[in-house]
């Protein structure tokens, strides 16, 4: 019998696989974990990241051989660029178990150490379990910032969100504990997420704003003011002095937080507050109980403007700031209608139609998977005049009429005045039939259903 010759290994450059269309599928099949950089050879940004990327690959070569690094020059790999919708350069994506479906975006990571931490947290525990006060102190003292979650028990939704958050913030150490003695040492009595900061204006404990839901954690001061500014700007020193002075005046009433807009790891915070480059310096107040956001009316960050903004907020006179995308011309042309802040209440509270809404974040891996099933649900009900299947990006639109939950989550707004809104939570591993109509068949008196619609065998309600 003739034995086929063993295929040669895929070529590497500085410990990074050189990938292209002809060998990409093979690389996926041969690798359990594959972190891929999509780049173009000219921009300096790509060159800088490639060096850090290669250094991360070198360090993990012996320590974690099941994790491989690869790179694709999309200048001449147009099919791969189109398949993975590569719009910016460089872009890094993470492929797991040989699947090319829905790779995980690795955003904002630019240093070798951060790449190593990011991929380790995706392939193993994302946080350190703290079992003693000495261990907590060691973590706090090792870096300028340390994030510790204090939980009554380690099996709850808050802990799950904390671990998911840790995966996307590789620049900071994350630890968690449920030990009563450790919690007592820091005066913690409830589920609390704390950022320990060594130096700067905030020598006290700062609270980290989670990109999923800031309401998850109980915190000592519910009022937080955030200054968004690049620390290398010409006006920074003067602005910073004004901010520190205001912080002293409102100590104990409002927690003051400084957000450096040059720091890539703060990207999710910018996204949460809808802060753009042209907006800075910008000042926002966040109420952790209601999730309400307030925008300082004045553009100039003076002590007087800060003082007036904070006092008007405490007096209940400040106006809530609501963000909304614009209503597109084709928002209702597809089976799944696209809602934004400006048309949300008008569509979902119309009383004549039942509206089923998916609340999602575009960067969430779980959301992207469920959006495909949501499209199928929309197609099933697109001919029904009394049902609307819709979606809304809650990272770009503020909705006060709905209590936010962990992404993705769902709300059913039934027709008629006597119905109550029903809540559903997204879970990884749901069978698709759950979202393809199970809830609707239960919630809607379906005496007008088409004879061709299958309303049996798919009932699966939480």
UniProtKB/TrEMBL annotation:
A molecular function GO annotation: protein disulfide isomerase activity
Transmembrane segments annotated in the record for this chain: none
Localisation per UniProt entry: Endoplasmic reticulum lumen
The EC number(s) this enzyme carries: 5.3.4.1
GO cellular component, one term: endoplasmic reticulum lumen
Record keywords: Disulfide bond, Endoplasmic reticulum, Isomerase, Redox-active center, Repeat, Signal
Pfam families membership: Thioredoxin (PF00085), Thioredoxin_6 (PF13848)
EC class name: isomerase
CDD domains documented for this protein: PDI_a_family, PDI_a_PDI_a'_C, PDI_b'_family, PDI_b_family
Domain Thioredoxin as annotated: residue spans: 16-120, 336-426
SUPFAM superfamilies: Thioredoxin-like
Any one Gene Ontology BP term: protein folding
Signal peptide residue numbers: none
Chemical reaction(s) catalysed: Catalyzes the rearrangement of -S-S- bonds in proteins
UniProt similarity note: Belongs to the protein disulfide isomerase family.
Protein name (database record): protein disulfide-isomerase
Species of provenance: Anas platyrhynchos platyrhynchos (Northern mallard)
Gene transcribed to yield this protein: PDILT
């Amino acid at each position: 019998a003739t034995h086929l010759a063993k295929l040669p290994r895929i070529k590497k450059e500085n410990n990074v696989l050189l990938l292209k269309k002809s060998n990409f599928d093979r690389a996926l099949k041969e690798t359990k974990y594959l972190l891929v950089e999509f780049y173009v050879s000219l921009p300096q940004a790509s060159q800088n990241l490639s060096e850090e990327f290669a250094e991360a690959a070198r360090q993990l070569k012996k320590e974690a051989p099941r994790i491989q690094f690869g790179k694709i020059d999309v200048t001449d790999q147009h099919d791969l660029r189109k398949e993975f919708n590569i719009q910016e350069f460089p872009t890094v994506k993470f492929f797991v178990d040989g699947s090319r479906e829905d790779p995980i975006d690795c955003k904002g990571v630019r240093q070798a150490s951060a790449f190593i931490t990011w991929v380790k947290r995706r392939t193993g525990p994302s946080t350190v379990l703290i079992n003693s006060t000495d261990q907590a102190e060691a973590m706090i003292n090792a870096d300028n910032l340390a994030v510790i979650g204090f939980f009554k028990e380690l099996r709850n939704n808050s802990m799950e969100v904390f671990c998911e958050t840790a995966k996307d913030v590789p620049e900071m150490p994350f630890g968690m504990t449920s030990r009563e003695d450790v919690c007592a040492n820091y005066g913690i009595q409830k589920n609390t997420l704390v950022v320990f900061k060594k130096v700067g204006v905030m020598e006290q404990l700062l609270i980290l704003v989670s990109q999923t839901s800031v309401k998850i954690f109980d915190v000592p001061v519910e009022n937080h003011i955030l200054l968004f500014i690049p620390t290398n700007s010409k006006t920074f020193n003067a602005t910073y002095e004004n901010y520190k002075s205001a912080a002293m005046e409102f100590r104990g009433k409002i927690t003051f937080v400084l957000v450096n807009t040059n720091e890539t790891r703060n990207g999710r915070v910018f996204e949460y507050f809808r802060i753009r480059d042209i907006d800075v310096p910008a000042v926002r107040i966040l109420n952790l109980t209601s999730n309400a956001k307030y925008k300082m009316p004045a553009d100039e960050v003076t002590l007087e403007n800060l003082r007036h903004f904070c006092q008007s907020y405490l007096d209940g006179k400040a106006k809530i700031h609501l963000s909304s995308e614009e209503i597109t011309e084709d928002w209702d042309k597809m089976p799944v209608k696209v809602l934004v802040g400006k048309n949300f209440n008008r569509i979902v509270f119309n009383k004549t139609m039942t509206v089923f809404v998916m609340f999602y974040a575009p960067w969430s891996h779980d959301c992207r998977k469920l959006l495909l099933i949501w499209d199928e649900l929309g197609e099933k009900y697109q001919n029904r005049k009394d049902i609307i299947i819709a979606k809304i990006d809650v990272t770009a639109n503020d909705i006060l009429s709905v209590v936010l939950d962990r992404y993705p989550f769902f709300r059913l707004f039934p027709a008629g005045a006597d119905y109550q809104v029903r809540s559903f939570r997204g879970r990884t591993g749901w069978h698709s039939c759950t979202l393809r109509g199970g809830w609707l068949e239960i919630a809607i008196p379906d005496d007008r259903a088409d004879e061709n619609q299958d309303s049996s065998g798919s009932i699966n309600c939480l």
